[in-house]
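Late entry, heme C complex.
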Amino acid sequence: MHLIAWLAAFWSSVTGVTFSHDVAPILYRNCASCHRTGGVAPFSLIAYEDAAKRAALIATVTAKHYMPPWLPSEPRFQHERKLTIEEIATLAKWAEEGAPQGDAALTPPAPRFPEGWQLGKPDVVAEMRAPFAVPADGPDIYQCFDIPAPEARSHYVRAIDISPGNPKVVHHAILFQDVTGTARKRDAGSGYPCFGTPGFLPARGLGGWTPGSLPFEPPADIPEQLDGGADLVLQVHYHPSGRPETSRTRVALYFTARKPTRHAADIPLGSNRIDIPPGERTYKVTDHFTIPVAVDVIAINPHAHYVCKEMYGYAVLPDGSRRTLIRISDWNFDWQQQYVYATPIRLPADTRVEMEFTYDNSEDNPRNPNHPPARVVWGPGSKDEMAGLHIEIAPAREADAQELADALWGKMIRTLRVR
Ligand code: HEC
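Prediction complete; structure with ligand written out below:
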């Protein structure tokens, strides 16, 4: 343990754990981005009284790693929402000791959340054509919104910031670009339902937003590209708040004149051969791809619906060793997002990347949409299943980009033949 952490632990073991000295800093750093007035969580955890009356529940949900919501157990990603063992122990001890306040004057100032764009003045701001009305209650809503092409010519994009609109109802938002014109046709003005995918191909992701997340900045030598004339499409997940609300999400784009020195590519692992009998607890879907050249793995985006339970993505290196690319032991569709590695993972040529998703179609899966369990097959609906693991990579040497593209093309053709 770090000396300072050790001293702090020693100090609180002598003085006891208090809200103002020990608990408030943990809650403000890890919980307040959602648990604040107007945030997406159902109550605030900023004032002492609000936290104290829930001390036991806070201890329980943090011990179970249910809060803060963060699905991957490994490896390390940017903007991770995770408590340390010491922090979990502090919250438990505080609850045990009756949630004492301590000296109120020592409470750190309440955290502030930036209202404006966090990276300064954007080159372009685009927004949903109209505010969307979210009813007071009912099921969560997944809606896609077309934003007519903000730029006539192509640009390299160094950063993207998304401002959710009304944080009481926006759970997450994902930004795509559409060069096919499909979204424009489907959106008559107030969006169209899109539960899983946005309904067009290729659906090129441009980043996303979840509560407390920071603007998305790709590595400086691999900027994103916004195609001239491409529409932006926002997929927004709304969670009704108990009152009718409206929300209008906005997007800020920051361009760069710097040309990419490497080109990112996507390894689309996955399968549409899914047919899960009712009651089956360990149905597996697997896929793999051998990468012919050395690459850096930048980000990963797992996708499945409610019956999926475990996700494991890994790399088998030429020497036989394994590296975990993502491990999720209790998948929750409601908290899906793209994960960007804390530092890109370098994989040597001829590494095989693999995915293994496990589906629990039994009554024991609390998220099973069917009671009693029913046969589940591949499809885009909320009672269907999907299996996708998108691995975003860049060749270590740009000279290898064509060989990589050819190999990915070969994989796509093989997939089509199987279908
Ligand atoms: C990314 C947003 C987010 C963060 C960060 C977050 N929460 Fe939550 N929390 C929610 C939402 C949304 C709910 C209500 C829905 C649910 O239970 O999933 C919730 C529910 C809860 C509940 C009620 C659970 C129940 O069973 O009724 C507690 C207690 C809680 N959070 C504590 C915390 C604590 C403590 C932290 C920080 C260590 C934290 N949360 C961080 C979004 C968040």
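The longest helix spans residues 401-418. Will revisit in the morning.
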